[in-house]
Write a structure and sequence with these properties.
- The chain is an alpha+beta fold.
- Helices cover 47% and strands 16% of the residues.
- It has twelve helices and eleven strands.
- A hairpin with an 8-residue loop joins strand 8 and strand 9.
- The chain starts with 12 loop residues before the first helix and ends with a helix.
């Protein structure tokens, strides 16, 4: 399968690992200038919005609120530690979060948010996708105060992106556990149904994940990237077993169990290590561009998912991660270079609109079903976004 003519050709996985070795991030947020705190120094017009989190429900006392400073008073009535998020409408961007709320305790989340569609989410046990519900912020007629402190804008963006990484790794751990259980038990249909949907959490934060040079090959090495004598573990080892090519000899039940156990162990290790990663604005800006490069070198070529052909799931996830990195830096970028911010918004929208035309059910069509013309169109849009995105880091530093 050919690449777009404007894009770099295939880059070996090992080379990509070296390239990411000095990179720690990609990005996250703000739809608005968001901050979170335990102190209810500012509240919504009618007082704090009450949130009750149990082990199975997330009850929010209001579905709408006027723009400005909002306070969510989050009470944990469950038996597990919980956390609460205010997310963007896409359920990915983290506007604010409050975590580690023990049973019986109440903590406040204070955010400054503009009008728009949002999502609330409680996460009992601090695992998985959480219990989500739509939330709307209406225009109060007053604009949220813009923080004139440029460095604070950058700091807020990196903090929000750190929360995004944490959220994605939590979902990756939960999804991997379910995938591994099905795979080890020989329920291959269920494992196939979970494969692409779980990997998106890896792909969204790929530059961060790949910064751990020893874990990346254990979790994401492709067969063609293996070095002599290297044991093949991770997602793509399972992929080949789930989507076997002609003449392939299936793994034994014992081999599948060993592979599944290692996958869970390595993913848990990854999640733990990401907790100590320190991010900076250049990590976010460079990480966004690296995610576009990931698409160019592995997804557009159809080489990443050689047997499952689920490359478009990965493609969308890389775009998600790059966009959230950009959104995290956007308030700062709008002060330094509003024209570039506008250009990036337009280019992201064009690429995401094209991707949407290939959506099917909860996922996408398989990559080997795309025509050469469709692949070329995707490649051109990635290329068109990559050029202005390469200017992001310099523009905010």
């Amino acid at each position: 399968m050919s690449t777009g003519s404007f894009l770099p050709k295939f880059a070996p996985h090992t080379a990509r690992r070296k390239r990411f070795a000095v990179l720690c991030a990609a990005a996250a947020l703000p739809l608005a200038l968001a901050s979170c705190t335990d102190n209810a120094k500012a509240g919504a017009t009618d007082g704090p919005i009450q949130v009750v989190s149990t082990d199975s429900k997330c009850t929010v006392s209001a579905g709408t609120a006027p723009s400005g400073n909002l306070t969510f008073a989050v009470k944990n009535d469950g038996a597990q530690v919980t956390e609460f998020y205010l997310l963007g409408a896409d359920g990915l961007q983290i506007v604010g979060e409050v975590e580690n709320i023990g049973p019986g305790l109440t903590r406040n989340l204070v955010v400054t948010a503009g009008s728009g569609k949002y999502t609330t989410a409680c996460k009992p046990g601090m695992q998985g996708d959480g219990i989500k519900a739509p939330f709307e912020i209406t225009d109060s007629g007053t604009q949220p105060a813009v923080d004139a402190d440029f460095q604070k804008l950058l700091d807020t963006g990196t903090q929000q992106y750190a929360s995004y990484v944490k959220d994605q790794t939590e979902q990756l751990v939960t999804g991997t556990q379910a995938f591994a259980a099905a795979y080890a038990a020989g329920d291959l249909d269920k494992a196939r149904s979970l494969y692409a949907a779980t990997r998106v959490h890896w792909e969204r934060i790929e530059p961060v994940a790949e910064s751990f040079g020893d874990l990346d090959p254990k979790l994401d090495a492709r067969e063609a990237d293996l070095e002599p004598g290297q044991e093949w573990t991770g997602w793509h080892r399972a992929e080949k077993d789930l989507y076997p090519p002609a003449g392939y000899t299936a793994l034994t039940a014992a081999e599948r169990s060993t592979l599944a156990t290692q996958l869970v162990t390595d993913t848990a290790d990854l999640a733990q290590r990401t907790r100590t990663v320190e991010l900076s604005a250049d990590n976010l800006g460079n990480g966004a561009k690296e995610l576009l490069d990931e698409i160019a070198t592995g997804k557009v070529t159809g080489e990443e998912e050689a047997w499952s052909h689920t490359d478009l799931w990965d493609f969308q996830a890389n775009v998600d991660g790059a966009r959230i990195a950009f959104e995290s830096l956007k308030p700062a970028l709008q002060q330094k270079n509003p024209e570039l911010a506008s250009t990036l918004e337009t280019k992201f929208a064009a690429l995401e609109a094209e991707l949407k035309t290939y959506a099917k059910g909860d996922g996408f069509v398989y990559y080997n079903d795309l025509t050469q013309e469709q692949i070329q169109r995707l490649a051109s849009l990635v290329d068109a976004l990559g050029e202005p995105l390469s200017q992001l880091t310099a523009a905010v530093l």
